[in-house]
Design a protein that fits this description.
Blueprint: H1 5-8, E1 9-14, H2 21-30, E2 38-43, E3 51-63, H3 69-72, E4 80-83, H4 86-89, E5 93-97, E6 105-108, H5 114-123, E7 130-131, H6 132-139, E8 153-169, E9 173-180, E10 190-193, E11 199-202
Antiparallel strand pairs: 1-2, 3-4, 3-5, 3-8, 5-6, 7-8, 8-9, 8-10, 10-11
Length: about 220
Amino acid sequence: MGKRLHDMARELDVDPFEYDKQFAKAKKDWIWNAEDPLRVIEWDEHGNKRFVEVGNLVRLHVRLPNSGETARNPRRNRDHMIDFALPVIRKSFVAFDMDHPDQPLYLLLDPRVRPQLAKRFYDENPVQAVPMNMLAKVAGGRHAKRQDYPNVAVKPVGFLNEIVYYTSKRGDGPSAYIHKMGEKSHHKPILAAGNDGSLYIVGGNYTCPVPGITD
């Protein structure tokens, strides 16, 4: 990677009326009008995108491909949990692209954790790497139709069942929120890993309106 954390993500307190009003409204709506300073996340690797922060990434629940005992007994095939340590949580985010019509989700990870993720989910993953748009078609949903996935070969980790993120919303205060992916549409996105340890949410049918991630 070669970049320090503050080079990858610059967190700025911005007066909403001096910044983009549409962006400021999206952020305020997401946290249910809580009084929280607007935080702008500039993440260089994703180019000129404006992200609305959902919250700090806490944990991912992934259904791994069946193998061995779980293939013979599907009920034993429980979710695999990817937990992040507190220092990583503080510098990792779930965010969505407010300018995209499908509002895709991004996992903005603390660079310190990426070598571990690359080793675990790419280097030691026996599955062949495939283009991201090809993998999206396996997952289905509105995000399978997108033509703007990064030109990156990724390895699938498994179907993403749940995202746990931490944020503060009016009425709830600081809380951990659990969102089940594909709860209504049954189009679960696939969690995929790049060779640099980046994690991607590929495919699925979700959107990110005011009440939260909706699927």
